[in-house]
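[Automated response] Your request has been received and processed.

Submitted sequence:
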Amino acid sequence: METQQVRTCFTLTFTQEQYLHSKSYVEDMKKHPQRVYWTGKQGKTDEELIMEQIAHRILSGFYNNESFRAARHIIGMESVTTS
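Generated structure:
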């Protein structure tokens, strides 16, 4: 079976409320260093973790049950297919 890769870059907007919520989430995760959340996140700054959490929540909403709300925050997407 042949597989392909797609590299996608999203341009997102977010509110101060979303930022603070994600910051709180990251702070809470620091209390639980054994959680699967930390897989692949070693060495990242708090700001990187917060931005990843914001993107995760927006894109999860887009693909799950809050597509209209999430779509307001997605202002651009670029994709490149590689083999």
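Summary generated for your ticket: The radius of gyration is 15 Å. Helices lie at 16-29, 46-63, 67-71.
If you did not submit this request, please reply to this message.
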